[in-house]
């Protein structure tokens, strides 16, 4: 019998019919009109679950040695890492999504950083994907975000791109599209000051072990919300996984 139990880790595909209007507006290619049309007619769409990624993504499955990232990926990450280091952050780990079934994925990688005072963390992510039709070329995306966590579980993130799914409550995201690291750093400090003023105690993250615990906790909460609450992520059957594997470029998973 195939294991499609959604309480178990495995490969999950996105049911785009369950995207929010805001998600499709941010992630889609058709602008406001395309988002409106999709939202109105989404229930008539037929979805094939033929690609996906392993969930939940635990820390030890994401963290890699820098040698496992491509030279191009490192070249994209390093300027943002340097900008964050000038604001008091230090690099603690590189990461890469390796357990996926996305045949159009060409390259991906990222970096985790922690601030010296323990109140802030940062992440830089690089992705490069082919579009469905070869003549359309590729999409390349570099995203930098800085976030602060609270003992209550609340997390507030400032990011320079809005190409993400809706955050899992009580996580909040402030979109500052195209902003510099310096500008985002100034904004997150203002947010931290406000959180302190209303009694939201900072959750100190001072080392890799702290970040790993926090990362795994947030990932589990996100997985639960997207799989069990929103039904956005659907566990792929064994047959779907095998079919997706056959579509992957040789040597990928």
Output the helix-strand order. Answer: EHHEHEHEEEEEEEHHEH
Indicate the radius of gyration in whole angstroms: 19 Å
Query: Widest sheet: strand order?
Result: 3-4-6-7-8-9-10
Span of the ends, CA to CA: 23 Å
Largest sheet: 7 strands, mixed
Low-confidence stretches: none
Average pLDDT value?
90
Kindly estimate the percentage of residues that lie in beta strands according to DSSP: 25-35%
* Helix percentage: 25-40%
Count of runs of 4 or more consecutive helical residues: 7
The gross shape turns out to be: globular
Overall number of strands: 11
Structural class: alpha+beta
Describe the structure.
- The longest helix is centred in the last third of the chain and has 22 residues, at 208-229.
- Helix content is 34%, strand content 26%.
- The mean pLDDT is 90.
- It has 253 residues and is of the alpha+beta class.
- The protein has 7 helices and 11 strands.
- Helix 1 (21-27) crosses helix 2 (31-41).
- It is globular and about 50 Å long.
């Amino acid at each position: 019998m195939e294991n499609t139990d959604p309480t178990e880790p495995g490969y999950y595909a996105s049911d785009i019919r369950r995207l929010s209007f805001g998600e499709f507006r941010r992630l889609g290619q058709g602008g406001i009109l395309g988002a409106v049309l999709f939202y109105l007619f989404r229930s008539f769409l037929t979805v094939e679950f033929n690609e996906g990624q392993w969930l939940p993504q635990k820390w030890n499955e994401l963290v890699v040695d820098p040698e496992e990232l491509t030279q191009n990926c490192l070249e994209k990450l390093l300027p943002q890492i340097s900008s964050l280091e000038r604001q008091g952050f230090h690099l603690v780990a590189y990461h890469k999504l390796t357990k996926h079934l996305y045949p159009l994925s060409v390259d991906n990688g990222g970096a985790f950083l922690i601030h010296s005072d323990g109140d802030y963390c940062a992440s830089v992510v690089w992705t490069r994907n082919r579009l469905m039709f070869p003549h359309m070329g590729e999409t390349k995306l570099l995203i930098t975000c800085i976030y602060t966590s609270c003992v209550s579980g609340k997390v507030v993130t400032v990011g320079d791109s809005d190409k993400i799914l809706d955050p899992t409550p009580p996580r909040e995201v402030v979109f500052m599209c195209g902003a510099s690291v310096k500008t985002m750093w100034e904004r997150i400090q203002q947010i931290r000051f406000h959180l302190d003023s209303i009694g939201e105690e900072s959750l100190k993250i001072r080392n890799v072990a702290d970040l790993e615990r926090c990362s795994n906790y947030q990932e589990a909460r996100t997985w639960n919300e997207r799989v069990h609450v929103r039904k956005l992520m659907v566990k792929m059957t064994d047959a779907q996984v095998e079919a997706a594997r056959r579509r992957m470029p040789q040597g990928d998973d």
